[in-house]
Design brief:
five-stranded mixed sheet; 7 helices; seven-stranded mixed sheet; single chain; alpha/beta
């Protein structure tokens, strides 16, 4: 082999090695951060709080932002209220996701004082969840459960991926998952229970198939906690609306190789404390009660998630 040929071969080997190294580096999941806005509303004038919060998140380097709910239970469930809040949320520079809260729909009443929950939920779906993208200026694509014909009504359940993490919203209102003890048949609750079970199965299936490092679920209620009661006898009479979902998440997480983090708002009828991420094995729980929280993802860390720019926490319970 001549010196010229040897030189060409060496250059070719070097080029191949460089290309492989470049691909390997590019394939490494990068660290990133995202924001979660808590339920800030107590009155109509609190819209200034929401505007300020969005401005703060816009100023940070975030992959996206999730807003837990659009209104408080004391505010009217009118189209005018929904549209006004949508306009504010749409103004976000970051891509923004609305994760529905119980105060947005499940506690709504009509002019006669009867529940208007189902009608208001359907209206929210028409206003907020109509296309395949997030809100905000930097819109990003979403996969909705409504893409499946059998669950075409559940457009509020969405999923998306960033780096090695699967993110998803799931409609779990804090008021006992909208289980109505006075009702003969809880048709809305029971139908949504089936839809949510299917949604969770698909989330974990796709995350496992892609060998993702983690799953983050956003919801209103606190599905991982068992309810507490101020009166002992209530344990035997009040049905736990999160029981099936809690069992299902636990079973799916136990089979998943990565981390699973559930991010939710202030729990109703549960012990409530904002103590950062609390882990039980690979299943984490984070309650966001006020303002907004920045969460960072560290793909190279065993703990994977941390609050703010801090190093991953190791707050475990057994």
């Amino acid at each position: 082999m001549s010196n010229g040929v040897k030189k060409i071969v060496r250059q070719w080997i070097l080029a191949c090695a460089t290309a492989l190294l470049t691909c390997s580096v590019a394939a490494q999941p990068e660290e990133f951060s995202f924001g979660v806005i808590a339920q800030p509303f107590k009155a109509a004038e609190d819209e200034s709080v929401l505007r300020e919060t969005i401005a703060e998140t816009d100023a940070d380097n975030l992959a996206f932002v999730v807003a837990n709910g659009i209104k408080s239970a004391s505010e009217p469930c009118t189209d005018a209220m929904y549209k006004r809040r949508k306009e504010i949320l749409d103004s976000s520079k970051n891509g923004l996701i609305v994760s529905l809260a119980g105060s947005d729909w499940s506690e709504c009443k009509n002019a006669h004082g009867r529940s208007a929950a189902v009608e208001r939920l359907n209206r929210l779906r028409e206003l907020f969840f109509t296309d395949a993208f997030s809100s905000g200026t930097n819109r990003f694509p979403l996969v909705r459960q409504s893409a499946t014909a059998k669950f075409r009504n559940y457009a509020e359940n969405m999923r998306w991926e960033v780096s090695s993490i699967m993110f998803a919203t799931i409609n779990l209102p804090a008021n006992n998952n909208h289980y109505r003890p006075e009702a003969g048949r809880n048709s809305e609750f029971e139908d949504r229970l089936i839809a949510n079970r299917n949604w969770l199965q698909r989330i974990f299936m796709f995350a496992a198939r892609k060998k993702l490092a983690g799953i983050v679920l956003f919801c209103d209620g606190k599905p991982l906690a068992k309810p507490v009661s101020s009166q002992f006898f209530e344990f035997s009479t009040k049905r736990d609306g999160f029981a099936e979902t809690r069992q299902h998440i636990g079973a799916l997480a136990a089979k998943f190789a990565g981390k699973v983090l559930v991010v939710h708002g202030t729990a109703v009828d549960h012990i409530s404390a904002e103590n950062g991420i609390v882990w039980r094995d690979n299943l984490g729980d984070l309650e966001v009660t006020s303002g907004w929280v920045k969460l960072s993802v560290h793909p190279s860390s065993r703990m994977l998630f941390s609050i703010g720019n801090d190093s991953p926490q190791t707050n475990h319970i057994h």
